[in-house]
Amino acid sequence: SSGINAEYGGKVITEENADRIKAKVIAEGANGPITPAADEILIKKNILVVPDIYCNSGGVTVSYFEWLKNLNHVSYGRLTFKYEFDSNKHLLQSVQSSLESRFSGKIPVTPTPEFERAMGGASEKDIVNSGLEYTMERSGKKIKETALAHDLGVDIRTAAFVLALTKISNNIIMAGFTFT
């Protein structure tokens, strides 16, 4: 059984109904839809809860990308377009040269329509989606590694908080602040 818990406002999964949950995985699409008591019950039932702090971070991440773009007054891809185009062209030439030296004779190598479009440069949407996918995958892996390192089982929420607090602490220390 699966479902989407994306209702805004209020606690949807509580101590009163958590025992009846049959799902193996719950993704919190809203802010805080599970009470702390219900969360404990779900953890004991070995139900993986992908917490709101992770599920909702995509929008914040994309807003950060937009902020960076606005700070620099440069559109996505403007600085790398020519380099990427030339790199792709050289890649095709290298493949052609390798084939021709191996099989002697002229062997034309032409890009597929998909590769041709990619050589034309990624759209702003493509670049943002690529950056978002990379960021979310990397963050998800780090949360999983933290859960494993601290033997947290399916308690991904705690792992996400431990990871966040560790990053904050490390940055404070790197900035030269000390705790007394």
Written overview of the protein:
The termini are far apart. The protein is mainly alpha-helical and 180 residues long. It contains seven helices and two strands. The chain has a two-stranded parallel sheet with strand order 1-2. The longest helix is centred in the last third of the chain and has 26 residues, at 124-149. It has helices at residues 36-44, 52-55, 57-72, 81-103, 113-119, 124-149, 156-174; strands spanning 25-27, 48-50. Helix 3 (57-72) packs across helix 6 (124-149) and helix 6 (124-149) crosses helix 7 (156-174). Strand 1, helix 1 (36-44) and strand 2 form a beta-alpha-beta unit. The model has no long low-confidence stretch (mean pLDDT 88). Helices cover 58% and strands 3% of the residues.
Tell me briefly what this model is.
The protein is mainly alpha-helical and 180 residues long.
Largest sheet: 2 strands, parallel
Strand order of the largest sheet: 1-2
Order of helices and strands: EHEHHHHHH
State Rg. 24 Å
Number of helices: 7
Q: How many strands appear in the DSSP assignment?
A: 2
Backbone structural class: mainly alpha
Low-confidence stretches: none
Please tell me what the overall shape is: elongated
Distance between the termini: 51 Å
% residues in beta strands:
under 5%
Mean pLDDT: 88
Level of helix content?
Answer: 55-70%
